[in-house]
Amino acid sequence: MVTAQRVEAPHLESIRTRARRVAEAVPDPELPMLTLADLGVLRGVEVDADGTVTASITPTYSGCPAMAEMRSDVAARLRAAGFPEVRIRTVLDPPWTSDWISAEGRRKLAEYGIAPPGPAPRRAVGPVPLTLSPTRRAVACPRCGSSETEETSRFSATSCKALWRCRNCLEPFEHLKEI
Amino acid sequence: MTDDHVYLSLAEGSEDGDARWAFGTGFEDPLHGVDTVVPEVVDGRILAAYCLALGDDALVSAQRLAEWCTRAPELEEEVALANIGLDLLGQARLLLSRAGQAEGSGRDEDALAYFRDADALRNVRLAELPNGDFAFSIARLLVLATWRLALFERLTGSTDPVLAAVAAKGVKELTYHRDYAAQWTVRLGDGTCESHLRMQRGIEEIWPYVGELFATGPVEREAAAGGIGVDPAAVREEVGATLLQVADAATLALPALPADPHPGGGRWGEHTDALGPLLAEMQSVARAHPEATW
């Protein structure tokens, strides 16, 4: 149990490590096989000298309906782990990118049947170029591994995923979009 | 506001933190936990008015896009339009919250979305026009997304860090909104005789409302001068060039953008008759049960 009194520096480091482990293990409400750390939504965990834990999170999309849940989940997990003073900070800048999904996160997505994202598009200086034809992407089927796949819909049940179909095993699957 | 909200007890009761959420009024402030101090160099009154207008464009657009649910030609397009609407609703929530903070009135996003009448809304009229057919809605989405993307790209350098961050996130979303609308414009324009005709008609029907997007009102002028916002006249050429590129690929005839748009329109609180019924539907539950949260 951490009480709200001044903490010595070496002790503080171990508290920070423990708080970080707790926050990093919180599952995402929409993709519960991933933690918020895997998804790159958890941006940092700090502990003040008075023992207050501050966890920073960032939304994936502007309309992400799960932000309040994430805040609540992270705060609840930290309190349950014995940190009474918890603050959740929302970081809007820099904006989330699918490049922040960890290697472990990508592995878990594929294992769950969701094709992980490729590299996010890099923006050159100047106006965003227009794309008039469907973007060709090499997305491997998460079930059979075939690269004979096609996009069926760029939009699906959540903002972050597209619908794809495998022409080899004929199974439909979801693909986490590059953004 | 603290992080203890009504669902916390649910989360604590479960090892998995399995709290579920509901939709309606009484949302947690979308800027909760963000550093929302208005910098000294920023005029809060102008920032509020500027964010309100951009927030209203997104709010009204999101409502029109949501009307396509159960009515789109294909399930995939219905999902696409709803997803685009959700992004815009997210942008609206952030911008209306920022407007409320900056004006210092204590009005939150719900007060601004649900308790203002049509003449207090500042959205451009193009956003409020009834959906028409699919081609009309695509023509409108193409123009609005192209225009908003050009504005947001510049707003990433706003002197207000919250507006700059909202814009940086919005740029990514508006990029695929514009691509979606542009690809449909080409598919319909360069499609069958019927689809070409409808797409051309859609463009002609929205055109009287396009000039307004580039008219500089007093709020835009002051916001641009203070580095908070962008003078919409500054994006006119870029937007025109992009629309022309799409129209050429779609074999459509694009009328010229009016050279000197007259002041007036949605930014001045002058709306079409279509906005009242839209607001009535969107606001009725919140107004019937003003204290309700769920």
From TrEMBL, chain A:
MIP18 family-like domain: residues covered: 24-80
InterPro entries: Fe-S_Maturation_MIP18, FSCA_dom_sf, MIP18-like, PaaD-like, Zn_ribbon_PaaD
Domain PaaD zinc beta ribbon as annotated: residue spans: 131-177
Pfam families: FeS_assembly_P (PF01883), Zn_ribbon_PaaD (PF23451)
Top-level taxon in the UniProt lineage: Bacteria
Protein name: Phenylacetate-CoA oxygenase subunit PaaJ
UniProt gene name: paaJ
TrEMBL record, chain B:
EC number: 1.14.13.149
GO MF annotations, alphabetized: phenylacetyl-CoA 1,2-epoxidase activity
Superkingdom assignment: Bacteria
Keyword Oxidoreductase: yes
DNA-binding among keywords: no
SUPFAM superfamilies reported for this sequence: Ferritin-like
Keywords: Oxidoreductase
Pfam family, one: PaaA_PaaC
Stored InterPro entries: Aromatic_CoA_ox/epox (IPR052703), Ferritin-like (IPR012347), Ferritin-like_SF (IPR009078), PaaA_PaaC (IPR007814), PaaC (IPR011882)
Protein name, UniProt field: Phenylacetate-CoA oxygenase subunit PaaC
Organism: Streptomyces humicola
Lineage: Bacteria, Bacillati, Actinomycetota, Actinomycetes, Kitasatosporales
Gene (name only): paaC
